[in-house]
Write a structure and sequence with these properties.
It is built from two helices and 14 strands, in the order H-E-E-E-E-E-E-E-E-E-E-E-H-E-E-E. A hairpin with a 6-residue loop joins strand 9 and strand 10. It is globular and about 45 Å long.
């Protein structure tokens, strides 16, 4: 059953999107060969991940994102097994950007209990564009996950850009235990190569566990996808 916070976020998203004078609404349709979250394989098969974001000039935004099984990898063909509702506020300067937010995780058509996180992300507009994000689960897990990353990029042509993103995660003891680990520590590593141009983007990623005690080996190491935004 949807929680009260989920209902409030959904109503707020609809209200913000319905105010064109003060808000912008963007949509994305992403397709991927698998769904991997923080190194954890959630869907070992093709997925469709639609998303809608309503934002305004103040820095406030609300996002609704879903994961739908396309090829029945988890006996859930054409069903959503996750819906995330995110409220965020972004601010910063020319060199440092920050975002704080709240995420409601819902798992329809599954036996998993939903949960909630608060987070803080910092990014620096300098060489390699370093960033750090810290998430804290305030509901089911009651522990943290942190991610550290760098990003490089450039132009292939006037219409196409390339990017390389490298990141590593670190998890607390309770976070690791909630997803099959035995102790906290270095969690997942990710290298993503991307191309983008106009309304489309594509990526290829390699993902692996950095410490088997924190994150057991997962069935998916390589994945690829393509997305369209409007």
């Amino acid at each position: 059953m949807f929680r009260k916070s989920a209902i409030l976020l959904t109503v707020a998203a609809l209200g913000l999107a319905a105010a064109p004078a003060s808000a912008d609404t963007s949509y994305s349709l992403d397709f991927a060969s698998a769904y991997v979250w923080r190194g954890i394989t959630f869907t070992d098969g093709a997925v469709w991940q639609p998303s809608v974001t309503a934002s305004n000039d103040s820095g406030f935004a609300i996002n609704v994102w879903g994961n739908l099984d396309i090829d029945d990898a988890n006996d859930m063909s054409s069903e959503f097994n996750e819906i995330d509702l995110t409220a965020s506020y972004g601010f910063g300067s020319d060199t440092v950007s920050a975002e704080v937010g709240f995420i409601e995780y819902l798992f329809p058509n599954t036996s998993f209990a939903g949960t909630r996180e608060v987070y803080l992300t910092l990014g620096w507009d300098i060489t390699a564009s370093p960033s750090v994000s810290v998430y804290y689960d305030i509901d089911e897990v009651k522990d943290f996950y942190a991610n550290f990353g760098v990003s490089f990029g450039g132009d292939v042509s006037a219409a196409v850009a390339w990017s390389v993103d490298v990141s590593a995660g670190y998890a607390g003891d309770d976070f690791a235990a909630a997803y099959g680990g035995v102790s906290g520590g270095m969690y997942d590593g990710n290298v993503t190569l991307g191309l983008s141009g106009g309304a489309w983007s594509a990526f290829v990623s390699y993902v692996d566990a950095l410490d088997d005690d924190a994150l057991p080996e997962q069935p998916v190491d390589f994945l690829a996808g393509i997305g369209f935004s409007f």
